[in-house]
Each structure stands twice: as C-alpha cells, then as structure tokens.
Amino acid sequence: MPDDSTTAAVLAALAVAAFACALFGAGARALRQPPVIGQILAGIALGPSLLGRLPGDPTARLFPAHILPYLGMLGQVAVTVFMFSVGQGLTAHSGQASGRAVAAVAVGALVLPMGLGAVLAVSGRAAFGAAGEPHAGSGTFVLFIAVAVSITALPVLAAIVRDRALDGTRAGTVALASSGLMDVVAWLTLAAITLGAGSTDGLRSGVRQVGLRLVLLLALAAVLLGVVRPLLRRWLRSTAAVPYHLPVAFALAAGAAAATTALGLHAVFGGLLAGAAMPHPPPRPGSSADHAPVPFVAASVHAVESLLLPLFFITTGLALDVGSLRLGDLVLLAVVCVVACAGKLGGGYLGARLGGLPRRPSATVAALLNTRGLTELIALNLGLASGVIHQRVFTVLVLMAVITTLLTSPLLAALGHRAIPGRERGPRPVGPAAVPTVRT
Question: Which pTM was predicted?
C-alpha cells in the first residue's frame, strides 16, 4: 500500500496533468483544432522533450520515478474506459454502414494506406534500423507500421464532424460509418500483432499459441456480442433503476479487460469489446433523454475519461523525447507523414468517388479520414509496450499523428467547412443519438 507521501505525489501529478491538458486543450480549441491535439502537446511539453530539459529537471520533480507505475495504471484504466466508448461508437456507426459509398471508402481508405505503409516499412528498413529498430523489416514490424499509418480516430472524427456542422450530411455520415468499419479491422490486426509479439517460443510453438489465443479472443467476442448483449438489452428495457446502469457498464468493461489481459492482450481490447456489447436501447416512453440509460452511462464515462485521461497523455509524453531525434529521424518523420496523408487522402477520395459521391463531398470524406489523435496514441503505446517499436520510432509516429490531425481543420476550411462556435462544446454523443439523419 502506498504511503502518504506517494499518495500526495500521485494526487499532485494528477492535478498538474489535468490543469495542463485543460489549458492546452482550450488553446487548441481556440485555434479551431481538436482539443486532443492540445492534450497530446501538453504531455510532450511536460516530459523530457521540453520541461525535462530545463535546469533542475522539473519533470523528474513533478513526476518522480516511484509514482510512475501508479500514474501508468490510472492512465490505462482511463484508456480502457475510453475504448469502451469507442466500442459503443463502432456499433452505433456500423448501423449506417450500408451502401456502395461506405464499403468503397472503407476499402480504399484502409487498403491503400496499409499497402503504402507496408512498402515504406520494407523499403525503409535501413532508415528504421538507423532509428533504433533491431527488427526492422520483420513481418510483425511491417504489419504494425501498415496499421499505424492507416488508423482513423473515430471519436475525434465524430467531434470534428459535429464542430463543422457535417453531422447529417452524406460526407459526414459516410466518413463516420466507414471509419467504424476500418477501426474494427485495424484493432483486430493490432490484436494479432500483439499476440505475435508476445510469443517467445519457437516459430511453430509461437504460431500455435497465437492461433489458440485468437480462437479464445473470438470466443470471448462471441459470448459478449451473442449472449451478454441481448441479455443487457432486455435488462435495460425492463429495469427502471437508472443508477444501476453505470456499475453494470463498468463491471462489463473491467471484466472484459481482465479477460483480454489474461489472454496476453492489452486491457484496451477488453474495453473495446465491452463497449460493443453494451446495447443502445431506445428511451422508454415518458422518460427524458438526459435520464435514458445510455446517455446517463455515456455522460458518466466521459466524466471518468476527463479526469484520468490526462495521466495517459503525461505517461505518453514521458515515454518520448523529441530532442533525441537525429537528422535521419526527421527525414523519416517527413516521409511517414507523406505516406500517411497520401494513403488516407488518396484512398478516401478514390473510394468516395467510386462510391458515387461528387468531387467536393469526396474530398471532405478524405480530409476527415486523415484524423488520428488519441486512438493512434493508444495503438502506438501498444506497439511500444509489446516491443514491436522503440522510443525513437515511437516519437516519430506520435509526431506523425499530431501533424496529420493538425492538417484536418485547414483542409476542411479550404473546402468551405468552417467551424461553428459552440458546437464543439458539451458531452460527446454516443449511441443512437450520435447517428445523424442524412441531409441531402
């Protein structure tokens, strides 16, 4: 059990992290950027990249080594809760995933960036090796880079769609629905990568272990979606005790996270599956939207995220050091950014055009899908924790996520989609409320 001084240090670190993330997030919002950009920059600023370079190493004083395990644990709890809301968003937006446009965009905006990422990882083996990657060019590394440049951050995308008054437009709806489909594939691929990276036995034994764990993971998903979800849907419709919904949601997320951890996967996969298993029942007659089960749970989950997610940004910032990058690493960063943007913008635009969208809505879809943000950070932390990538490449990929997300707002503004003041505020919609009616 931590002593009083450790408890005080953890609480002080939480206060600093929350204040810094709120301050930087407000600054990003003032610049018409997603708040997550400011929060990521807050973590970088408080880490060795900036604050740690000042005399006396203020970073080590604010975040001493003995409290880092506690900060990391609280940050992972927040990320698991966040992935619960992502899972709910996937099931909500996948309900829109019909029609040629959504399928074409999902395929184009996933296959092209993954292909380009794989080509980059193979052809740039020497550059990645010079950046400190001993296994550059291996199958696991190539697949991870391919996924890393192809991820779209669905929660950040939904916030931008709302901010730019694109909710209900065909471009916004197609972008959200296709992003949900792509995220499902991306997270399944990351699960396979994590299982493969965690195998330390011989090739045949390692393949056998990975196969067994994948089967168990699919069985867990089948139980959650095929058994738990219908039972919860029936229970949510029949019970009138709203306060019980939140404990059930958190118990589901924690139980699923514990199960995936036992399988050798990260807890975030359990949070994602739990969110997908949490149903979205319609409000009962006579009840207000604020007291409906899902909005109540969504608001509570958002409150937990707001309190603890800053610790995830801080621990991420502590794990990277921009000052450690060499000239070759900066060149690699530029190339990775070009590949990531070309894959998402090109694949999204071509997919939308093949799906029947006009040029301007197709360009809007492409710009939206180039958004990364927090979801990318979670994936990169998985790669770092499993040893697939190391600090310098981790730093390069984090900066890529920031740069590509920063480009989204200027691209949308150039297409005539300017932010509407006030629409970005308030809790994020989750579930059926997040699914817009298409405006023509």
Answer: 0.82
